[in-house]
Amino acid sequence: MLPKWLRRTPLAWRQLLKEKTRLLVALAGIGFADMLIFVQLGLLDSLFDSATKSHQNLQADLVLINPQFQTLFYVKNFPRERLLQTLSYDGVVSVRSLYVDTAQWRSPETLLNRGILVWGIDPANPAFNFPEVNPYLDQLKQLDRVLFDRASRPEYGPIADLLQQGPLTAQVNDQTVQTIGLFTLGASFGADGNIITSDSTFLKLFPQRQPNQINVGLIQLQPGVDPQAVQAQLQAGLPNDVNVLTPEEFAQIEINYWESGGIGFIFGLGVVVGFIVGIVIVYQILYSDVSDHLPEYATLKAMGYSDRYLLTVLMQEALLLAALGFIPGFLLSLGLYQITYMATLLPIAMKLERAAFVLLLTIIMCSVSGAIAMRKLQSADPADVF
Amino acid sequence: MQPPVISIHKLNHYFGEGTLRKQVLFNINLEIQAGEIVIMTGPSGSGKTTLLTLMGGLRSAQEGSLKILNQEMCGANKRQLIEIRRNVGYIFQAHNLMTFLTAKQNVRMSLELHDEMINQDLDAKAIAMLKAVGLGDRVDYYPEKLSGGQKQRVAIARALISYPKIVLADEPTAALDKKSGRDVVEIMQKLVKEQGSTILLVTHDNRILDIADRILYMEDGCLVDKQLV
């Protein structure tokens, strides 16, 4: 035997189904609003993901930076001796240093210069854990050798293709270098591409940089040591011209930098606009549904149905619209993500949390619309039916 | 003798507030017994429909006494009004069917109000009722595919399926031609007699006066009782 509520006529469902065109328009509208929100959230996520991709590949338990360090695209230095000082603290096993700066890469094809992010690592003790990089470490020790990020934007030239014919001569900061191999990191909103060099090559490419002024210090701890405890000790013991951070905090600095700039706001605005568009569309649909059926609702009240029953029907309608409208919005967004990825090479993909968040937003969106449309429903007066 | 199903004593009713307050019903006294068929006629604006909405619990009674099925409606709360509505069948001038429901589903809606019925085969009951009004072959039609007379017969099926003690009908034949109007009234008469319901029917239609046990005449908010000869 079916439960009671299933044995009742599904009024909300019947009402939605009766006007197929209106239903389709409603679903298209909600789907469009969802798509707008999905794209904005996706771009925002990809902004943060791409900006912190390199952070996630650092071999470090703690990170040392200049306190004024805000972003990888405008680096600040600090004395290398601070990093070496950390070795005297309990729990610290080893340290690595990393140079970062932006150089001009000249495309071998168009001969146009374009900014590229240069990572200077110690080949004997690399800061990154890219398995692709390891086979090249010995070759990198020679001067003027670089590895190129195959996920860089195509404006740098078809480097991956050209490399198949052997090492490739390229120009970085007007100096000739040999590209000897590839790795994968990815473009971001700040950097269209990346190259990895040895620290010596880095200093040659940037003659104004001092060898003892590094950008990022990476600290490796003994297994089982509490990083937070060491972090506190280091922060207390070292002069305050450096900050000691966990890798997560280091990544957060980069995220904060992008959030504080207008970009985070712009994407947030897009989400809000999508949300409001959705509310307006669903409200329009529900309002006209209620208006069109007002005499019928009044009749139901006259028959003895309570206000609460009719409000439930309206909310059911709103939630059905939310659930049905989410599906096309979700599918369209998958396609748009793919198109955006192909056009920008930014890491943009559907995430379960984002889908759940947008579904939640859709439900809120439809509920709010339903709540506004309810006011109209109250005006259905059973005394008017005669 | 059973108590009357409708008992009205010194009922007054007003519309509007303050200086705009206008009395529309004056000192109405009326008793209707179980099983009676009563027709109420009178010119437009005489207060017939207002009296009907008061009896059906669609409006709150203001002054005097109005007892429906022994429930005092003067000062009744919202829940009591809703309870009375569930025991009254309505038939409207415009059929007021749900356009997005089939004939069968429309009739079901009336049964679903009663929790004790929900576990029975509501579809079978609805179909049986539609057969009784001569629409056995139209159960899955939407109202837009039915003629005026057919729609009104669905409305009758909806009003009578839960065996209401009282049926209130407002101009049920106004929108129908002579033949369909006559059919509708005869079906109504037959079913309420079978069920032992009381029916109060407001109409201008002289063609149907003959079905009544009693005819009431209303003018300017006052009731004039005329016994059938």
From TrEMBL, chain A:
<keyword id="KW-0472">Membrane</keyword>
<feature type="transmembrane region" description="Helical">
    <location>
        <begin position="318"/>
        <end position="343"/>
    </location>
</feature>
<keyword id="KW-1003">Cell membrane</keyword>
<feature type="transmembrane region" description="Helical">
    <location>
        <begin position="355"/>
        <end position="374"/>
    </location>
</feature>
<keyword id="KW-0812">Transmembrane</keyword>
<dbReference type="InterPro" id="IPR005891">
    <property type="entry name" value="DevC"/>
</dbReference>
<keyword id="KW-0813">Transport</keyword>
<dbReference type="Pfam" id="PF02687">
    <property type="entry name" value="FtsX"/>
</dbReference>
<protein>
    <submittedName>
        <fullName>FtsX-like permease family protein</fullName>
    </submittedName>
</protein>
<feature type="domain" description="ABC3 transporter permease C-terminal">
    <location>
        <begin position="271"/>
        <end position="378"/>
    </location>
</feature>
<feature type="transmembrane region" description="Helical">
    <location>
        <begin position="263"/>
        <end position="286"/>
    </location>
</feature>
<dbReference type="InterPro" id="IPR003838">
    <property type="entry name" value="ABC3_permease_C"/>
</dbReference>
<feature type="transmembrane region" description="Helical">
    <location>
        <begin position="23"/>
        <end position="44"/>
    </location>
</feature>
<dbReference type="InterPro" id="IPR051125">
    <property type="entry name" value="ABC-4/HrtB_transporter"/>
</dbReference>
<keyword id="KW-1133">Transmembrane helix</keyword>
TrEMBL record, chain B:
<dbReference type="InterPro" id="IPR014324">
    <property type="entry name" value="ABC_heterocyst_DevA"/>
</dbReference>
<dbReference type="Pfam" id="PF00005">
    <property type="entry name" value="ABC_tran"/>
</dbReference>
<keyword id="KW-0067">ATP-binding</keyword>
<feature type="domain" description="ABC transporter">
    <location>
        <begin position="8"/>
        <end position="228"/>
    </location>
</feature>
<protein>
    <submittedName>
        <fullName>DevA family ABC transporter ATP-binding protein</fullName>
    </submittedName>
</protein>
<dbReference type="InterPro" id="IPR017911">
    <property type="entry name" value="MacB-like_ATP-bd"/>
</dbReference>
<dbReference type="InterPro" id="IPR003593">
    <property type="entry name" value="AAA+_ATPase"/>
</dbReference>
<dbReference type="GO" id="GO:0005524">
    <property type="term" value="F:ATP binding"/>
</dbReference>
<keyword id="KW-0547">Nucleotide-binding</keyword>
<comment type="similarity">
    <text>Belongs to the ABC transporter superfamily.</text>
</comment>
<dbReference type="InterPro" id="IPR027417">
    <property type="entry name" value="P-loop_NTPase"/>
</dbReference>
<keyword id="KW-0813">Transport</keyword>
<dbReference type="InterPro" id="IPR003439">
    <property type="entry name" value="ABC_transporter-like_ATP-bd"/>
</dbReference>
<dbReference type="InterPro" id="IPR017871">
    <property type="entry name" value="ABC_transporter-like_CS"/>
</dbReference>
